[in-house]
Write a structure and sequence with these properties.
Blueprint lengths: L1 H24 L3 E6 L2 E10 L2 E8 L9 E9 L4 E6 L4 E7 L18 E3 L5 E9 L2 E4 L5 E4 L4 E3 L2 E9 L15 E9 L4 E2 L7 E4 L4 E8 L8 H8 L2
Antiparallel strand pairs: 1-2, 2-3, 3-4, 4-12, 5-6, 5-13, 6-8, 7-11, 8-9, 9-15, 10-12, 11-12, 13-16, 14-15
Bound molecules: 2-acetamido-2-deoxy-beta-D-glucopyranose (7 copies).
Length: about 230
């Protein structure tokens, strides 16, 4: 009797664990295009925060060691990081100012307030993790923030082009595997800036939340990558 009931208890538990694993590790991605810019996109819900990550890769034959990224995060927030595969280097996105909508009312036919961001207030940088913190390192990658970055409703969209000599050996560009696990972390803790230009920042991971998804390399690779770069003006 006892043995039976413990087995009955176990089955729903195992099912719950399985559901959790599927939900956590296999969030679906889809190709989303906005104004001729397409990115392989994951719509995530990280502790009730709707986070959208879009990534576009150039073809391997192009020889470009770079990618496009569009991170959309709810306000208020502190920072976001994405980690590709088992790499030490991550990408960290944040705004150095609290982006506030302009005090003008939206036109009646608009459902959202849509504001261009001052791109010099936005950061998208390589960062490395140690001791429960991320440290941004502007020397590890070259980033250009697109003027298509925007504040839409209560979401901040940071659109950037990132290149680095490091990416040639990074898992994201590996052709040996079909997909990479991308781990997305968000936190509402404000960055601690270590220099006056606010390029180097310490990002405290202690109150952060994460979720992972599978990034499909072939679906996220675009023949017209360079045309999309031009479209974004980066
Ligand atoms: C790039 O190709 C996609 C189809 O994969 C298309 O939807 C998009 O408009 C193209 N963008 C540019 C800038 O050519
Ligand atoms: C960035 O992502 C958001 C949310 O998916 C989308 O509304 C916006 O159009 C995207 N921006 C670009 C330039 O692709
Ligand atoms: C954007 O921010 C920079 C640095 O804070 C400032 O110099 C510049 O005037 C701002 N541009 C606009 C259009 O507000
Ligand atoms: C990398 O980015 C920098 C700065 O945005 C740019 O000057 C350089 O040409 C880029 N390199 C490559 C190989 O794309
Ligand atoms: C940034 O771009 C410059 C110019 O192309 C290049 O010399 C440098 O190696 C790049 N930095 C990294 C970390 O890739
Ligand atoms: C993390 O959360 C705890 C409890 O809510 C709070 O006391 C602490 O100040 C937070 N730490 C940071 C770095 O925000
Ligand atoms: C990855 O994307 C390609 C091209 O869109 C598709 O044919 C393939 O089935 C996808 N693989 C997985 C594991 O979803």
């Amino acid at each position: 009797m006892k043995k039976h009931s413990s087995e009955d208890m176990k089955t729903p538990g195992q099912f719950a664990v399985l559901t959790l694993l599927i939900g956590t590790c296999f969030a679906q991605t889809q190709t989303m295009c906005n104004h001729n810019v397409c990115m392989e996109t994951a719509n995530l819900e990280i502790e009730n925060n709707k986070v959208t990550i879009g990534v576009a890769l150039p073809t391997v034959e192009s020889g470009l060691n770079e990618f496009l990224m569009n991170a959309s995060v709810p306000l208020p927030y502190g920072f976001l990081s994405i980690q590709m595969g088992p790499n030490e280097v991550q990408m960290c996105d944040f705004s150095i100012t609290e982006p506030l909508p302009l005090p003008t009312p939206a036109p009646p036919n608009h459902h959202h307030n849509h504001f261009k961001m001052n791109t010099s207030d936005l950061r998208s940088q390589a960062c490395t993790e140690s001791d429960g913190s991320l440290l941004t390192n502007p020397m590890l990658a070259n980033t250009t923030i697109s003027s298509k970055s925007a504040l839409l409703g209560d979401h901040l969209q940071i659109v950037s082009r990132i290149n680095s000599t490091l990416f040639g050996v990074q898992d994201l560009f590996s052709t040996s595997s079909e997909s990479s696990v991308i781990r997305v972390t968000i936190s509402k803790s404000a960055p601690l800036y270590l220099d006056s230009s606010k390029m180097t920042a310490l990002l405290d991971l202690s109150n952060s939340s994460s979720q992972s998804f599978n990034f499909n390399h072939s679906a996220g690779t675009f023949e017209n990558y360079t045309a999309m770069v031009d479209e974004l003006g980066v």
